[in-house]
Design a protein that fits this description.
The protein is mostly beta strands. It has a single domain, classed as ATP Synthase, domain 1, CATH 2.60.15.10. The protein is built from no helices and eight strands. The two termini are about 20 Å apart.
Length: about 80
């Protein structure tokens, strides 16, 4: 699946990933390949990403919004 993490200052990440774990306002959750469509708000915490190559990345966020649709994720973050 394709992930874009966008902040007000820059595009923090763009690429193919296996897994994304985010701090949702109702609790953290994980998105895997072909996840059902979802839109959620995020709270302060850590966004964890595993890329197709197996690299483990972490991004800090002070909140934001995530949308998963058609196996593509757009994550708008206060910081990253």
């Amino acid at each position: 699946m394709f992930l874009e993490i966008i902040t007000p200052e820059k595009k923090a990440f763009s690429g193919e990933v296996k897994l994304v774990k985010v701090p949702g306002t109702a609790g953290s959750f994980t998105i895997l390949d072909h996840h059902a469509p979802i839109i959620s708000t995020l709270e302060k915490g850590v966004i964890k990403v595993i890329t197709i190559d197996g690299d483990k990345l972490e991004f800090s966020t002070d909140g934001g919004v995530i949308q998963m649709k058609s196996n593509s994720i757009i994550l708008l973050s206060e910081t990253a």
